[in-house]
């Protein structure tokens, strides 16, 4: 039984999220997703959709076995509870793989770190980024 963890903000869902979660699920047998708390999303605009509602929507997706809300202060607490074999980072996530590996091993957590692949499109009618969906809403509805 290989347990995989994926994580992210998942504010307004789109097919890029589904692709990432399917990719992560294909790395093992059981996929757990940690949904970032709004207070911890400091590297970009904070999410529009509330924490629990984002968790509920991610948990309803087919590749996901369980969705957890992240911890607000210590991001390693949910990892210690879930005990994954693999952490699947998104293709564009800002985390440094080596730093993360060092922080995990300092906490006594032994797991592999893998990168998922991007879902890209040439089609103009596909919007594969929450930020771009919000930009389009602002452009077209204001
Ligand atoms: C291994 C790991 C565990 C994480 N656990 C949490 C957590 O418990 N709580 C939280 O708010 N954020 C947690 N995060 C951080 C958020 O998921 C982070 O903000 C995320 O990388 C945002 O990515 P995005 O910009 O791709 O949505 C974790 C990140 C990693 C890599
Ligand atoms: N087009 C995509 N292809 C593959 N993975 C994606 C894609 N878009 C998002 N993801 C992955 O989904 C996870 C959560 O991403 P996040 O919630 O930041 O969405 P986003 O659409 O990239 O948001 P934003 O546009 O605000 O940066 C991350 O691991 C990210 O790499």
TrEMBL record:
SUPFAM superfamilies: Nucleotidylyl transferase. Pathway: Cofactor biosynthesis; FAD biosynthesis; FAD from FMN: step 1/1. Residues 6-115 form the Cytidyltransferase-like domain. GO terms for biological process: FAD biosynthetic process; FMN metabolic process. Keywords: ATP-binding, FAD, Flavoprotein, FMN, Nucleotide-binding, Nucleotidyltransferase, Transferase. One of its GO terms (molecular function) is ATP binding. Its EC number is 2.7.7.2. Its cofactor is a divalent metal cation. InterPro entries: Archaeal_FAD_synthase (IPR050385), Cyt_trans-like (IPR004821), FAD_synth_RibL (IPR024902), Rossmann-like_a/b/a_fold (IPR014729). ATP binds at residues 9-10, 14-17, 92. It is an enzyme of class 2 (transferase). Homodimer. Catalyzes the transfer of the AMP portion of ATP to flavin mononucleotide (FMN) to produce flavin adenine dinucleotide (FAD) coenzyme. Belongs to the archaeal FAD synthase family. This is FAD synthase. It comes from Haloarcula quadrata.
